[in-house]
Write a structure and sequence with these properties.
CATH topology: TIM Barrel
Distance between the termini: 28 Å
Number of domains: 1
CATH class: Alpha Beta
Number of helices: 12
Bound molecules: flavin mononucleotide
Length: 346
């Protein structure tokens, strides 16, 4: 039912300013979930085998990428649509408003989005409280963490540690975002040395938290698609040395492949959707060359069809996430991907 009405809903939503459309869609989804309208939706993908990754069991391979449910207050609703895992955030220690509006741009001719949201989020305490309110979601919850904009890079580790500690009791895995192009200087933390220092501290803190709580929470790092081969090689060594649990590849790109003629192409921010597909799959493939099966990869970036999803898996991804494809194709895309043979094969 929901799938059939999406083309009309999209027509209406695309008449609205993109950020208002996003807020209204989330509010409508939450309302539908609270009224019981979404019940039973996720039940019609036969043959889906659970997938083991990072020591967790995922009901299926497809997740919602970070940024859609930044606050973590629509997890149950997105779960009903069929996602096997939901990554909330990015969430920072303190609440912040993000960049001035407008900061979200559709490029419909290219099935793409440019955003420079800048980690608008309610802060980690509220994010954790929202996750605790989740009622029926049976899948995996990822908690994506970042640093506040006004925290200098030299103190960024403290922000990640605060978020790690607070999110630990509610997160199934924690995703460390080092790759948003919209927080000045954040991508500098992707350099092999800063990344090694950060991971070292986070791993020590995890040992302490494990001793204190008896609970282990896997750690993933989310990287940019704009890394060069040498950087990928150096980072892979760091991730292997540090025993990272998973890699999330990729975030949005600061490049502007294919969209150069679009009136919004020069807007600052990260580009996602169809123009990112190839580049992101290439980065997954390069990381997989270096990491083999020692560190699983969550493939994300321009999955707009079941074919794109299959190509990410062929490139070496174990799990998949999407964001922009959902904006352009709605819930039908989730079903299409889950029903495709490449994704449903165990
Ligand atoms: C509007 C918007 C906001 C986003 N916010 C975040 C974020 O807060 N944290 C994050 O790690 N990624 C964020 N992303 C990146 C997505 O999670 C994803 O990595 C990227 O968009 C590529 O996937 P896609 O082509 O399927 O959208 C955002 C993407 C969009 C379009």
């Amino acid at each position: 039912m929901l799938e059939g009405t999406y083309p009309l809903a999209r027509k209406l939503l695309f008449r609205l300013n993109p950020e208002r459309a996003h807020d209204w869609s989330l509010a409508a989804l939450r309302l539908a979930e609270n009224c019981g309208v979404l019940k039973g939706l996720a039940g019609d993908s036969p043959g889906l085998a659970p997938v083991k990754c990072m020591g967790l069991t995922f009901p299926n391979r497809l997740g919602l990428a970070a940024g859609m449910d930044k606050e973590g207050n629509a997890i149950d609703a997105f779960g009903r649509l069929g996602f096997g895992f939901i990554e909330i955030g990015t969430i920072t220690p303190r609440p912040q408003d993000g960049n001035p509006r407008p900061r979200l741009f559709r490029l419909p001719e290219h099935d793409a989005i440019i955003n420079r949201m800048g980690f608008n989020n309610p802060g980690v305490t509220e994010g954790v409280a929202n996750v605790r309110k989740t009622k029926g979601f049976q899948g995996v919850i990822g908690f994506n963490i970042g640093k506040n904009k006004d925290t200098p890079n030299e103190q960024a580790i403290d922000d990640y540690l605060i978020c790690l500690r607070e999110a630990w009791p509610v997160a199934d895995y924690i995703a460390v975002n080092l790759s948003s192009p919209n927080t000045p200087g954040l991508r500098d933390l992707q350099g092999p040395e800063p990344a090694a220092r950060l991971l070292d501290r986070l791993q020590s803190e995890r040992d302490i938290l494990l001793r204190e709580t008896g609970r282990q929470v896997p750690l993933a790092i989310k990287v940019a698609p704009d890394l060069q081969t040498g950087e990928i090689r150096a980072l892979s060594r760091v991730f292997l040395d540090q025993g990272l649990d998973a890699l999330i590849a990729t975030n949005t790109t600061v490049e502007r492949p294919e969209v150069g003629a679009h009136p919004s192409h020069a807007e600052a921010g990260g580009l996602s959707g169809a123009p990112l597909t190839k580049n992101s799959t290439e980065v997954i493939s390069r990381f997989h060359d270096d990491l083999g099966d020692r560190i699983p990869i969550i493939g994300v970036g321009g999955i707009m069809s079941a074919v794109d999803a299959a190509e990410k898996l062929s490139a070496g991804a174990t799990l998949l996430q999407l964001y922009t494809g959902f904006i352009y194709h709605g819930p039908k895309l989730i079903r299409e991907i889950l029903n495709s043979s490449a994704v449903s094969a165990s």
